[in-house]
Design a protein that fits this description.
2 helices; 51% strand; alpha+beta; single chain; three-stranded antiparallel β-sheet
Length: 77
Amino acid sequence: MKKCEKYNMKQAFEEKHDFDFDVNAVFVSCITGRRVTKFTNVGRFSVFGITISEARRIAKSINVLPQYICTITLITD
């Protein structure tokens, strides 16, 4: 019988991971009376060996700008 291990969320958030960051520019236009939002890829970068909290801080600092959105992707091998 398999033994179930307890999963500690605090410990999971403090583990080091690799992340991809995608930065998109947001363009809003009106076409025939409808609001259309378009995302254009501006850049992409990777950061290795950081925690989830640190990755969220980086994305949050970019998301503060009104015309940019940053998304995070976990790199898995």
